[in-house]
Amino acid sequence: MVQTGIVKDDRYMDHVADSYHPESHQRLEVLYRMLQDSDMQGKFAEIEPRMASQEELELIHTPGYIQMVASTAGRTFTMLDPDTYACSKSYETAKLAVGGTLAAVDKVLKGELSNAFALIRPPGHHAESNRAMGFCLFNNVAIAAGYALKTHKVKKALIIDWDLHHGNGTQHSFYERADVLYFSTHQFPYYPGTGFVNEVGSGAGKGFTVNVPLSPGPGDGEYMIIFEEILEPIAREYKPDIVFVSAGFDIYYHDPLGGMQVTPEGFANLAKIVSEFAQETCHGKVVFVLEGGYHLEGLRSSVKEVLRTLRGEILAGEREGKIRKMMDHRLIAPIIKRVKEAQKPFWKNL
Ligand SMILES: [Zn+2]
Questions:
Q1: Which CATH number covers residue 27?
Q2: Cα 74 to ligand 1 centroid, rounded to whole Å
Q3: How many domains does the chain have?
């Protein structure tokens, strides 16, 4: 039987801006409320988060940077970059976001849970080793991948980043390594400016970074084809021991920051594709980590569909057929061709 875990904790709402900010505590408020829906209640195992240790943060971040973030604790308000704030409790909240993700990794890798979704904030994928960026303080998913390798001795981790934005921090964390494969779809050109097709990794990491930069427009069907034609063959050949998803819901069709067209059904379908190949390569061990997503109702309904998919309430074939029919190949054919050309030297199944 599939058992899905969730990380949730009211302390994740303690990271608050001093004026309007899209990455607000309301994002988790609507998600935690959704978990009380009659069809969701009692269906998920709650994972107790913990504080990440200094040593765990140092898997990705420099001691100087961690010290700088720590110095914001207790101060009313600090701007860390033009988009990224810290309030008096942000340092603690960010450590708890990392620790919550690590607790989910522990449960999934020990086999106590089938898969998990860390419903946490602040998000992480823009955070660099020595710098806060794009609403992110510590890089939750990158630390989690590093932790899985170091503490649980897994050999290979795959990070799938479907957030609207390129996860520059995650990419840079593993750019020269073969033991973490980073795959990203993102709007381009757009913030943060990285994620070109020809950024494929370097040194021992060559071929272990896969970027699919997209013009605005792709929706459920186009994302599905990109996953089927690029991600799936690479993932099957790579054979990860654990899969992470940097799950950003800012590719939702009404998201205020983005130009993508994904619906809740489309998110469910992507989660289903990921779960299926994870089943084949690593007994379904997948940890989802919340990144962006700024349309509150869209976030609520999309995360709900993903969670239902993770616990095995799989989409009916009819729905999948409908998504496939709505696909406009012209939107993505050129980019799929370019990505395949860039990645072919490294992946014989492409
Ligand atoms: Zn984003």
A1: 3.40.800.20
A2: 28
A3: 1
**Active site (catalytic) residues:** 126
* Residues lying with their CB under 5 A of ligand 1, a single-atom ion: 163-165, 248, 250, 292
Domain membership flag for residue 55:
yes
- Is residue 350, in this structure, part of any structural domain at all? no
Instruction: Please report whether residue 208 resides in a domain.
Output: yes
Pinpoint the alpha helices (H) of the chain. Answer: 26-34, 54-57, 63-70, 90-109, 140-151, 168-173, 220-226, 232-238, 264-282, 296-310, 317-325, 333-343
| Residue 128 domain-assigned (yes or no) | yes
> From ligand 1's centre to the CA of 342, what distance in Å?
25
Is the pLDDT confidence value at 37 over 90?
yes
Range of the domain at 187: 4-343
Tens digit of each residue's pLDDT (9 = 90 or more) over 213-261: 999 999 999 999 999 999 999 999 999 999 999 999 999 999 999 999 9
